[in-house]
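[Q] Does anyone have a clean structure-token version of this?
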Amino acid sequence: MKDSRKDGLKGELNEDEFAGMRKKLRDAVPALDELENGVELRRDLWPDMLRRLERPRVRVPWFDWALLATAGAVAIIFPALIPALLYHL
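[A] Here you go.
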């Protein structure tokens, strides 16, 4: 079995670390009985969604499309280059 100390990880959690992790998880995730009863969110998400929809869309410059088309054409014309390029990644 691999030694966890070589990976930069400690072996086991001590009681204080375990209690801290338990508290953080309980704070982050609501209880199951609350989820079953239809608990409300802490805030309304719809205004954020509307703001996101109203933001201007990201425009891609024509040069990026030309570069993509060139790369696609090269891949179609010279398919043997694909494994060679992947090898060098």
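[Q] Thanks! Anything notable?
[A] The chain has five helices and no strands.
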